[in-house]
Write a structure and sequence with these properties.
With 271 residues, this protein is α/β, with parallel strands linked by helices. Helices cover 50% and strands 13% of the residues. The protein is built from eleven helices and seven strands. Helix 7 links the parallel strand 4 and strand 5. The structure holds magnesium ion.
Length: 271
């Protein structure tokens, strides 16, 4: 009898220890972590995957090739211009995303605070590419949905890390509407836009705006020749219109409801 009791006791003690350890782990992670679990994996990729850096280099190497090709075209009457988005295209805001995870918070908490710190680092390859564009004498326009009230720290951050042509008339931030078409048209009135660079399809054309997943797929397929040519895309799995489409743009839904909608989007296979 003794022979059986001892191992059983040991097993019970071990499982009690394990349960205690799991409880401690859960406590470290935080109570209601459901909200930011998807964000954890995406932010980890953004901050630690060398593949992320490689993709960014790939995007800007390709952009440089296209720029050189474009420069060989003659007979243009308008000055050539490159349009870039800012967040997750040339500036890395993953420390803000990491803050949301650690504090179990959601956008817009901490957003203005983060921008005002002016500490965002350049996305790998962005600085070298834009300085090359500047050397070649092209105009650079930064078209971002950061709110216009954050113009001062945004300009200071861009200047501090060394981006060229950072001036009031080269920076188009959001005032009332998120759509960027009006701002692009204004630039196009006296420039030939040879390239657009962004992490969100809305950075390229209004045809993607407010579309469902199927609609975004269809428009992407119809414009397939533009990608890697006139349109250069940076990866961003942390947030974006893709996520909006996945939750039917129900940004005000509860965390549970959002998670449910995301899970429902997944396609698995029949066993
Ligand atoms: Mg962006």
């Amino acid at each position: 009898m003794k022979k059986i009791v001892l191992p059983v006791l040991l097993l019970l003690m071990l499982s009690a220890c394990k349960a205690q350890k799991n409880a401690a782990d859960n406590q470290t992670i935080g109570g209601n972590q459901e909200k930011n679990l998807p964000l954890l994996q995406a932010t980890l990729y953004h901050q630690t995957a060398a593949e992320m850096r490689a993709l960014a280099y790939q995007a800007f190497n390709l952009a440089k090739l296209q720029l050189d090709r474009e420069m060989r075209r003659a007979g243009l009457t308008k000055k050539r211009a490159v349009i870039l988005d800012i967040d997750e295209t040339i500036l890395d805001n993953s420390p803000f995303e990491a803050k949301l995870i650690k504090e179990n918070a959601s956008y817009p908490s901490y957003w203005a605070e983060w921008i005002k710190k002016e500490q965002a680092k350049p996305i790998p390859g962005a600085l070298e590419f834009l300085n090359y564009v500047d050397e070649k004498g092209l105009a650079i326009f930064y078209v971002s949905n950061r709110h216009d009230s954050l113009k001062k720290p945004t300009m200071a951050n861009l200047k501090e890390v060394g981006f060229p042509q950072v001036a009031e008339d080269h920076l188009y931030l959001k005032t009332t509407i998120s759509g960027k078409e009006k701002r692009r048209k204004k630039i196009a009135s006296d420039h030939k836009i040879i390239m657009l660079i962004g992490d969100n399809l809305n950075d390229f054309s209004e045809v993607f705006e407010g579309k469902s997943i199927a609609g975004r797929y269809a428009k992407t397929d119809s414009l397939r020749e533009a990608f890697g040519n006139r349109f250069i895309v940076l990866p961003n799995a942390m947030y974006g219109e893709w996520e909006g489409a996945a939750i039917d743009y129900k940004y005000d839904a509860s965390d549970k409801e959002k998670l449910k909608r995301k899970l429902n989007r997944l396609k698995d296979f029949e066993e």
